[in-house]
Design goal:
By secondary structure, the chain is α+β, with helices and mostly antiparallel strands. It contains six helices and eight strands; from the N terminus they run H-H-H-H-H-H-E-E-E-E-E-E-E-E. Strand 7 and strand 8 form a beta hairpin.
Length: 228
């Protein structure tokens, strides 16, 4: 007894969807079973059989699904190549410029609706990071820069007949103050004061403010004491 091998006869004018649906029905395969065996979502196979290509995922995924489904249904490589060409042609015809524009607008609106909170969240995170960097930069600059040092008295090139002078001023509260090498205590606001003995002639007073990691701030005063 001769065995006849059945072959798929494609009618001219059949769409890709009709060819796929006809091949599946000829093999008496349920669409749900095909989806399970191929591990492809039922809705994507249904979209291929209904010609609803806009429901397929973007990019090459739709064509890949078509390829796997066609080979599963027994299409040869040559038949698949022709099917792929028809698929591309039908997609281009089915997506007219007006339809594309409408679909794009709807997609943009939906994307804007769903992604705006993400954008705002990202913007807030970037802003917080920026503020943190600015704050850390400010703190670092303050730590390594010269401290504030203001000398209220004596004035520059001060002339006096007294053999002592009151040296006072202000610096940063965390700074260490020395006058002519001797440490002077400051109050909580950084103000300091010390009486310095003088001798006849020119006296040099060196006031230094020091921070732990920063550079020293030095102010020098020269005082002339007139002898009797």
């Amino acid at each position: 007894m001769l065995k006849f091998k059945s072959s798929k006869i494609l009618l001219d004018g059949e769409t890709v969807a009709e060819q796929l649906r006809g091949a599946r029905q000829a093999k008496k395969i349920k669409l749900e079973d095909a989806a399970k065996k191929l591990n492809i979502s039922y809705k994507y196979l249904r979209a291929l059989e209904q010609g609803e290509y806009d429901k397929l995922p973007a990019g090459v995924y739709g064509k890949n699904f078509l390829r796997e489904y066609a080979f599963f249904l027994g299409f040869s490589q040559q038949e698949y190549d022709e099917l792929a060409q028809d698929f591309a042609a039908e997609k281009s015809i089915g997506h007219s410029p007006e339809r594309k524009e409408l679909f794009s607008k709807q997609r943009v609106k939906r994307r804007y609706f769903f992604e705006t909170p993400k954008f705002l969240k990202s913007l807030v995170i970037v802003f917080i990071i920026f503020v943190c960097f600015v704050y850390l930069g400010f703190k670092l600059n303050k730590a390594i820069s010269q401290p504030l040092l203001i000398v209220y008295s004596p004035m520059e090139n001060f002339i006096t007949e007294k053999h002592f002078v009151e040296v006072s001023g202000k610096t940063e509260s965390e700074s260490r103050i020395t006058i002519n090498g001797e440490q002077v205590l400051s109050n909580t606001t950084g103000e300091f004061s010390k009486t310095v003995n003088l001798k006849n002639g020119i006296n040099t007073i060196v006031i230094i403010s020091q921070k732990k990691y920063g550079r020293d701030k030095i102010i020098t005063r020269q005082i002339m004491v007139k002898g009797e």
